[in-house]
Amino acid sequence: MVDPISAISGGMSIAKGTYDFLNFVRGIKGTDVIAALFDAEGRRTDGNDKIEVVKLDGERADIWWYCVKEVPGYVFDRVPLTASCVQEMPARLTNEQNPRADYWRWYAMERIGTLVDGTSPPNIKVSFIVVGYKPKALLNYFTS
Q1: Taking residues 71-75, what's their average pLDDT?
Q2: Domain count of the fold of the chain
Q3: Which of 85, 104, 108, 130 could form a disulfide with 124 if both were Cys (CB 3.0 to 4.6 A apart)?
Q4: Which domain holds residue 52?
């Protein structure tokens, strides 16, 4: 059986690593960091108007997916506000062999070895932050 504290701290370590990386990016000239806060329905509740999230229906009513609308020159990362109890799953689009990082959903952490009706676990409702930055500035930082 998995130790619950280890499972939670693992999720928190990933979140801390993401926050540390984004804080680093924020300090690089020209990254032009933008950010916005979204509720579990994908509605922006605060932050930059350039960032828009699309919520897509899944194969069941309790499964849905998100993606961020493209903003030229930007890439986006997302962070659930309650990272200690969620896992992220990337989506594979129809007729594509591999999952894509720009489509995702969150679901509750399951105990290892358990199945939820033999199918995918339902989504978890969690607010999240989307952060965008210009990767070209990051590349220039490392290559100059």
Answers
A1: 95
A2: 1
A3: 108
A4: 4-143
